[in-house]
Amino acid sequence: MEHILVTGGAGYIGSACVEYLLDMGYKVTVFDALITGHRDAVDPRAEFIEGHLADRDGIIELCRKRKFDAVMHFAAFSLVGESMKNPSKYFVNNLCCAVNLADAAVAGGARHFVFSSTAATFGQPERVPIRENDRQQPINPYGESKLCFEKVLRWYSDIYGMKYTALRYFNAAGATGLHGEDHRPESHLIPLILQTVRGKRDKLMLYGDDYPTPDGSCIRDYIHILDLAQAHELALHAPRSGHYNLGTSNGLSVLEIIRAAERVTGKKVNYEIAPRRPGDPASLIACSDLARAELNWKPRFESADEIIESAWKWQLKFPDGYAN
């Protein structure tokens, strides 16, 4: 039985991936500082260790002692707007702490490093859908911090022989039966919409209606967390080191997501137009042909209505999130 270390396994995507790995028969240890994650989000079948990757000696000792077969790294800060105000926070955590983990993986003899990367490494895309070899020119420190660590992994693979896979995914969304979005404060579009529908917030702020898109609102590629979890497991068997984009290739605008949420919930969404947020590209859509061909990845959730319905069911089941 392969033993996987999952950093950030108490977070939104990490917890869903842990659930999936356990269902697939892996042994999982979760390492999380619980800064943005939730202890109750950790699957009880996994071992949990509370710790911070800033503790370089501690994470190296853990990896040397446990001899994990692979590492999956989800532990990162991911708010674009915050990164534009506090870049140091993002480079320290998303780069420096990640290097500590990479050194620990090497020291412990891990064979594979799977990195939760992002479409934000591309910045304003030259074309859509975006392909893996398109120019990467981030327009915010969040994307830059992730791109920097992708480059670190490439060098570590060349020098130490540790295989790596960087999964650049677009807008994670949806929920499993047990795991959903409970960010505090919440920043993702779909849970914000659903909280507005439930009356937990007065209105939704729509940031920018003057982008060069058909309806003026930002376009994103929404991907269900179970499809992301499937890709991370498949990445453990990737034929080579490298990078893969993950998305449905179906770009949807903010206004289209609002309309889909209204269909799913049967309720109107109260929203207000606000100024653009700095660092937000107009359109991000993935070409995921490479992942489909090389990883045999086959996403199951292709429509916005399916993704939103799963998130809606989770919010109704857990109206106060993990506080329940």
Features:
10 helices, 324 residues, Rossmann fold, alpha/beta, 7-stranded parallel sheet, 3-stranded mixed sheet, single chain
What topology emerges from the helices and strands here?
Blueprint lengths: L2 E5 L4 H12 L3 E6 L14 E4 L5 H11 L3 E4 L6 H6 L1 H22 L3 E7 L22 H20 L2 E7 L1 E3 L15 H9 L6 E4 L11 E6 H11 L6 E5 L4 E3 H12 L5 E4 L14 H6 L9 H14 L7
Helix pairs in contact: 1-7, 2-4, 4-5, 6-8, 6-10, 8-10
What does this structure look like?
With 324 residues, the chain is of the alpha/beta class. It folds into two domains: 3-173 and 222-246, NAD(P)-binding Rossmann-like Domain (Rossmann fold), CATH 3.40.50.720; 189-220 and 250-323, UDP-galactose 4-epimerase, domain 1 (Alpha-Beta Complex). It is 38% helix and 18% strand. The protein contains ten helices and twelve strands. The strands form three sheets. Strands 3-2-1-4-5-6-10 form a seven-stranded parallel β-sheet, sandwiched between helices. A three-stranded mixed β-sheet has the order 7-9-11. Strand 5, helix 5 and strand 6 form a beta-alpha-beta unit. The radius of gyration is 19 Å and the shape is globular.
